Amino acid sequence: MSASPISEWELVEQSKEKMAPNLSTLPYDLLLNIAQHLDVYDVQVVQITCRALHDFAITRPVYRHLAVKLLRRCRALPLPGFQRLSDLTTEQLIATVTKATRLERAWLTRAPRPVRSGRSPYLEDSGAPSDTVSKPRWYKVINSPPDEEVDWLSPITSSYSLCATKSGKVVCWDVHRNACIAQWDPFERWELWKCRVEFEQRTVFFTMAKVLRKMNHDDRHMQFVLMQLQFPESHGQGTDTETPAFSRLATFNTLGVVMNVFLLDPATRLLSAFVWVSTTNTIGLYTLLDWDKREYVFIDTGIECSMSSNWSCILYKEHIVIHAEESEAAHQYFFPLSLLQHYAQPYVTSETFVPKISGRVAPTRNLKSPFYFPSLPARPLSPTSSDDDDSDDDTAAEDEDEARPPSPTALAVAQQPAATPQPASQHTNPFPFPPWYPESAHFVRQWWPSVINVPKMSCTVVLLADHDPVSHRTRYVLAQHYFRVPLLERGGDEAYAEPSPPSSDTSSDTLSLTAGGEGSAQGSDAPGPTPVFDPLMRIWYVSEPFEVVCVLDSMDDEDEDAPTERPRPLMAVDFGHAVWIEYVNSESGDVDAKRLRFVTFPPLGEQVLDPGEDSQPGEDHWLYKDAASRRPTMEGEVWTLEIPEELNLDHVETINIDQSQGSVIISVKNGNIFILCYE
Q: Which residues fall in a compositionally biased region of kind Acidic residues (predicted)?
């Protein structure tokens, strides 16, 4: 029996079905626009729908956009060596983005776990002796410089580490070959002050310092040497066969108490330093506008130096910006390079040369933005509290399989109406100064390779301390926030107010940010607009007090017969992450028991990066929300990290973290360096 003929109407309907558009037949550009609203896991689901969408979802533009989204959230990509995004094949790019997303997602919901074999570039071996090869492990042990004490240690990509010793040497170590490949030895005691890696130039810049003499109780005559470690260009996919080389770039002297040195822009050879001017208790700005030229700038900024303030220095659009943070607010002071050039003086490369302050020069713009403090759970804030021994159960902190219950803070922070400016007294500072003071402050820039159009962000992590003079115990908490220059920037440079006329003897107006992003001069009797909080100025805490382990560093003092010692907390930070060693608050009586702790803070959301005119520091600005409450937590999630049995935390000298590879690097007194790899 023959099949019935197809009617004309059915032919038309079948033709319409074939012509009807569907997702797999859309033009590539439209599919790419759709993909820009997807995350990595969504893209992976698209890949298993059909062959056409699979072929689209594994193209380079799709994963490049996902990489840019990670970079915008200030998450570094796990690139091996000095590789850049453009150096990767499409397959390598997919693997890199997938690993970075997996690390970010996992560390926000559970404790980092030891990596499975072969899943970290640190664990690769190149030319290792056969007797050192053992069963695959999640960590690696390499040597530190023989017969030397490590004073400072930092990874330089996943292939190298840079180490400064207490004798003054700087050593570059090949992680894979477990061998020294370059060394700088001044044959006298120098101290490493600052280090900066430039991936595009395959160069590490660092400064070394020594005290020439003490002028009086407060002032020191010091000499600094600026060095570079240049790595040769890579030829092929293998390990570089040529060794890096140290070279000296500049030598300069300072007078006063140098607070910090900043390698602002190696490409333009710009360097600055903060010097405490003891006679006026103000900040002196020392600058080399071009370290190839024999001239310097040394001015008194007139900015008061407070013991509770933390300081950083940033280059922004031909301005040197002094970023200062007090307990309640952040300030930014702008000094145009063109203004500083007027105060340049010649210098002589000699240990006898003493620089002089040219005069007092006020900043041309001042910005101020208050911090947004969350409402924290009620708990004792003093080490002398009667509830001192009440702490979280250790087993809860070490549960790697599931996140903790929702933070009480997340339930206490109310959503604000979108168009209503939040008052400056939204919440009070839960850890005010005094009694809490900054034991150490870490300002972290985006050190990793990036791409154009990714906002330049910075991160501050402050270790706050409260010392009890009776029991001599010190308790610590962590506070973290993000920031950028200028504060509360919206739509270009709206956060800037009109500059006040440059002056060498008067201070410029101080400007507070208002609802429109403009600045208003302080000191007027007229009431000003209600301040608006920059969403970036929201503080994240590890608010449960803990006791961090400190090591004692020697300090040479010419007025004393023996060197004095200063405590250095065993803590390291990276962008949005921190790791430290703390004493376990144990009831077993083992007061010296220690553990390795880790915290990751929520990454940035798009509304924080591109705030609207009525944007407030509300909960929807933050990408991560607690899985149970679907509301963001104001607490950083703290986890206890697993460590190898052979690692004795009693012998640790230095600690560092590489968030891009999920690794913690620890040096110990017996001459070994442990590289612990997590996922």
A: 386-402
What's the one-letter identity of residue 255? L
The per-residue pLDDT for range 213-258, each reduced to its tens digit, is 887 767 889 999 999 999 998 765 445 557 899 999 999 999 999 9
Asked whether the whole model's pTM tops 0.85, one would answer no
Query: In 3D, which of 328, 370, 375 has the Cα closest to residue 488?
Result: 370
For the domain that residue 26 is a member of, what is the CATH number? 1.20.1280.50
Q: What is the DSSP letter of 537?
A: G
DSSP codes joined into one string, 277-329: ETTTTEEEEEEES-TTSSEEEEEEEEEE--TT-EEEEEEETTEEEEEEE-SSE
Distance of CA 384 to the CA centre of its chain: 33
| Peptide bond before residue 434 is cis, with ω within 30 degrees of 0 | yes
Domain boundary among 340, 370, 400: 370
Which residues constitute the domain of residue 53?
21-109
- Provide the 10 A C-beta neighbour count for residue 300: 20
**Distance, CA of 507 to CA of 423 (rounded, Å):** 28
Q: Write the CA distances from 35 to 27, 32, 74, 88, integer angstroms.
A: 13, 5, 21, 21
Does 598 map to a domain? Answer: no
Shared domain for 86 and 222, answered yes or no, is no
* Residue 251 covered by a domain: yes
Query: Using one digit for the tens of pLDDT, what is the confidence trace for 100-137?
Result: 999 888 888 888 999 986 678 888 765 544 444 455 58
Whether 344 maps to a domain, the answer reads yes
Q: Per-residue DSSP letters for 43-107?
A: HHHHHTT-HHHHHHHTSHHHHHHHHHHHHHTT------TT--GGGS-HHHHHHHHHHHHHHHHHH
Residue 564 is which amino acid? T
The burial of 203, by beta-carbon neighbours within 10 Å (0-12 exposed, 13-18 middle, 19 or more buried), is given as middle
Domain end (from 370, 397, 431): 370
Q: Compute the distance between CA of residue 429 and CA of residue 373 in angstroms, rounded to an integer.
A: 6
In a domain, 258, yes or no: yes
pLDDT in tens, 543-559: 999 999 999 887 655 45
